[in-house]
Amino acid sequence: MRTYVTAQHTGTEPGQCDTTAVRSGPGQARAYVLMDGIGRRVETRIWADRTARQIARTAALRGDAEAGLRHVYNLCRDDAIHYGSGHKAAAVVAVKTPGKPLTVAWCGDSRAYLMEGGIAVRLTDDHNKRRAYPPSANSPYGGSRNSLTSCLGSDRDDENVFNQYGHPAIESTTREITGPCRLLLASDGAYEPHEDARTCLFTACAGDDLISTARNLVNLAVGTAVKTSRALDPNRVYADNATALLADLAP
Q1: In the sheet that 181-186 helps form, which strands lie side by side, from edge to edge?
Q2: CA within 20 to 30 Å of 154's CA: 68, 106, 160, 183, which one?
Q3: pTM for the whole thing?
C-alpha cells in the first residue's frame, strides 16, 4: 500500500521548478524532501531535481533532516561563492525512522505540517521578510511574505542570516510520533491560498485516498488563487504553481 504521494499544479503560467524526492536509508529511515525552485528556467528545474534527490539521499543515510539539508546547503553555498551559481530554492526536509522522533529542517518558506488530534500542526517557521518584519502599528502589513530571507543556493551562512534577520540560514525541529498521523510538505503556492481562505488543512488532507487528496489540495489552492486574483483585477489573473507531498507516518 502506498504510504506517500506527491501532486503538482503549474498554476497560470507554463513551466515550474518545484520538485520532490523520497529516499530510504539504514534502519528503515525515510527522508521526504520538497523544494520550491525560484524562477521558471529549465536549468533551475534540472538543478532542483538533482539537488532534492541529493538532500533526500543524504538525510536518509544520516537519519536526520538537518544533517542532510545542511550538508547540501554548504555544497550549494560553496558553488555560489566560487562560481556564482544563480539557482535558488526554498527547501523543507522530514526524516522518520521507526522508533525515533520525526526530524524536520528547512530554509526558505516551504512548510511542513503534521495532521494529528484533529488539527494541522505547523512545524516550520517561514524564512521571509514577513517573519523578520512583522506587521505593526507603523507597518500594518509588515515585510513581504514572498521575499525570502534564506534559501538553498545562497552564499550566506547562519551567522550572516541571523545578524540581519534574526534566524539562522537553516532551522530544525523534532516531533515525537505517538500514533498514526499524516505529514504534509507544501510549497507556498500550495498553502498560501488555503491559509488566506482559512481552509481547514486537516480536513483538506484527511481523505482516505492519498492520491486524490493530494491532487485536490493543489487544485483547490490554484483555483482559490485564481478566484482571489480575478476579484482584485480581472485583467491580471494569477496563481502560483503548487506542490504538495503527503505521507502517512507511524511510530
Answers
A1: 4-9, 242-249, 181-186, 111-116, 119-122
A2: 183
A3: 0.95
Query: What is the bridge-based pairing of β-strands 89-96 and 242-249?
Result: unpaired
User: For residues 197 and 42, what is the distance between their CA atoms, to the nearest angstrom?
Assistant: 32
CB atoms within 10 A of CB 251: 14
Element (H, E) at 55: helix 42-62
- pLDDT, tens digit, 9 for 90 and up, residues 136-149: 888 888 899 999 99
Burial of 229 (0-12, 13-18, 19+ CB in 10 A): middle
The owner of cell 517561514 is: 126
Cell of 244: 504538495
Instruction: Find the helix packing angle between 42-62 and 65-83, rounded to 10°.
Output: 140
Residue with cell 550566506: 156
